[in-house]
Amino acid sequence: MAPEPITRRSLLRRGAGAAALASGALGVDPALAAAGDWRLGFESLRKETRIGRLHVEGRLPAWLSGTLVRNGPALYEVGERTFNHWFDGLGMLHAFTLERGRVGYANRFLRSSAYEAWKKEGIIRYSEFATDPCREIFNGAQATFSLAKRPNANVHVGRLAQHFVALTEVGMPVRFDPKTLRTLGLAGPELPLGQMETVHPHRLEGGRRIYYEIPLVPPTSYQVKLARGLRKPQRIAQIPREKPAYMHSFGLTERHVVLTESPFVVDPLKIITNWEPFIRNYRWEPSRGANFWVIDRRSGKVTRLEADPLFTFHHVNAFERDGKIHLDLCGYDDADVIDALYLERLRGRRRPSPLAELRRYELDLGRKRVRMRQLAEPTLELPRINYARVNGRPYRYAYGISVRDYRTSGYVDQLVKVDVRKGDSKVWREKGCYPGEAVFVPSPHPRREDDGVALSVVLDARRRRSFLLVLDARSFTEIARAEVPHHIPYGFHGELFRA
Length: 499
Ligand code: CO
Description:
Number of domains: 1
Mean pLDDT: 89
Bound molecules: cobalt (II) ion
Distance between the termini: 59 Å
Radius of gyration: 22 Å
Strand content: 35-45%
Number of helices: 8
Helix content: under 10%
Low-confidence stretches: 1-28
Largest sheet: 6 strands, antiparallel
């Protein structure tokens, strides 16, 4: 017998109730929604809303004000097709406005070229991280690079000069209004085709930032740059590489920039001629090992240190002590994590591969030696620190998402605060709840590094809703939560913007 199509009536007959109906209206698979399953976080959210005041449980600190803007994919189905990978989905911004103990919420899709093509034509017109455009649009050469005027900037948000911008690795920053979440246009002139840039630049005083660019059209290299606002950047170093690696972030100390080069590399000639989306051009070549490229911020002098193969998305922090660079990152043994994040796997019954370890690499520049150790027991990803106070300096605390035990839990099911000096950790978890990145916000007159709060958007799969969780960063216990009347698909990064 053919399965019965899911209609309002059949749902009611099944007794799935109003919540399932509501989630059905939002495009959530009702069966999934009813199960209280973590996979709900990989289902699309189509509806744009604006809610003046959310119900708040507990009490927010009176000093906590600003707008927490979170970015991430929210729509995976376009016409007859579904994007391949978690990183491909159409970007949506979520804004939690915090003021005098009250919380407002709004969400809006980024008006990217990909969004317009979905709305007007119902097709995938542009290449994303791991998804091709429709075959008829495919033009072979340069298909890897999105030819979109306005990229699907679904990864991070930040400030660039006076602008608020949504960020992606393969396209220009897209400006948005943090109050209305309206998309305003590109920030600055268009990037040259086929250039990759980090969404995790390091911010310095005076509105300056350090970042890297990787032109993927030959001749390829890693280029480290220093810029103020939208002004022409100054190049600190250029490291020619025939096969550049995929990189997502980097480390910064008071004296050095550190690029972590994993053996997950691309042949730039193939990237131009291959009919493959961006990440499918990269190959894991462990025999190459890994390299740490250490660049003197003043002189631009480059030192290379070799290490065993590793893969990382996120650096946590870096600092110098006793003539060594201590580089903390969320490390994997290989790049399999990228394959584990294909939607088919995330939505399937197979468990995702384990999350990253919190690792410290000690780089001895004199002896050109690298030593690695694990800093703490729990897995950790999407790391955050008290950035303004400790970035580039000795520090004590890292906050992140984590998995308690893959045998009993299918997905990220806890937040952790790790004391990197002692190696112990504090945990927040709640049954049926799946948290996102925890953004640390310092209190107004902090005495200690961890005086402040950690803000995370958590999916409560059993209630089929997400909520903003406010943790006291010191004790890592809940102060307050504010629930949204729908689920928020798992996102990547966010920032609290203060007026
Ligand atoms: Co990131």
